[in-house]
Amino acid sequence: MTLADVVAVAMFVGVIAYGLFGGADFGSGFYDLTAGRGEMAGELRELVDHSIGPVWEANHVWLIYILVIWWTGFPRSFAAATTTLFIPLILALAGIVLRGASFVFRKYAATYRQARLFGAIFAGSSLITPFFFGTVVGALASGRVPAGGYGDRIGSWVNPTSFVGGALAMATCVFLAGVFLTADAQRSGADALAERLRIRTIAVGIVAGAIVFAGLYPVTHDAPILRGAAAPLLVIAAVAGVATLALLYLRRFSIARIPAAGAVAAVIAGWGVAQYPWMLVGQMTIAQAAGAHPTMVGLLVVVGVACVFVLPALGYLLWLTQTEVWSRH
Description:
Elements: H1 3-33, H2 39-52, H3 60-73, H4 75-84, H5 86-105, H6 112-141, H7 160-187, H8 191-222, H9 231-249, H10 253-275, E1 278-280, E2 284-285, H11 286-289, H12 293-321, H13 324-327
Antiparallel strand pairs: 1-2
Keywords: Cell membrane, Membrane, Transmembrane, Transmembrane helix
Transmembrane segments: 6-31, 85-105, 117-143, 163-185, 197-217, 229-250, 257-276, 296-319
GO biological process, one term: aerobic electron transport chain
């Protein structure tokens, strides 16, 4: 494994982390959007606020981490991707900004109508953001980003692989969020709410599985590179997904979070394994995209420093949100 490969792996670890932590964060918007009205709806929205409140901004550390490594470690591929896929990237960025602003504004809304408006913006942008990130993944995996950049502004992300990627990203985020919210509801003593979330999360999990299997045909024909190497990880994801559904059915909500996270991580890892050694499929390998040697060394040093100083702080924050004291407030 070359130095460039090590840096690429370090970057992809960030992709998996963002898919897990950011995914559970984004997916909560679906449950907020479909909560309805009345006392039970208020209870669900309060749970969403309580669960993601401490971490919704911290999760974007992973996105910053990915982008910094990409544009400094592999600048040519970054330029090619951003000049080709600027439309879905801008839409995803708009979703992040609107989501964050509306999440805060609805807490200070002067009227109920304003609160509902900001809540709808928060929920809607929570869904469109992972969708457009998924279309970017589909464009990269299907080889629609030319090495020189400035590719097809529409066709690069409006295609079968991108749409399946967007739908799958959205569905897995909602499923992951449902599993975590159900566990949070049970831990806080809201058993009736946990039961409602349990049923909805099982339904979402079945839909996510259907998207995976329905999308296999168009994706494997539109993006042949995703065949073969990713199959074992997709099998792992399928087994983990079924295990999650079984644990939800048995009301083992806390344990269900483990295979749920494993299923999502396996799907993302499958994309990375299948695409290796390409940075831009059919256009540019990781070695060809790599920046100067001193830059790559410097990036690994920074990653090491981040592991020492940043990871413990994030880990402690996540641990605090799972304690009984936090759950009761």
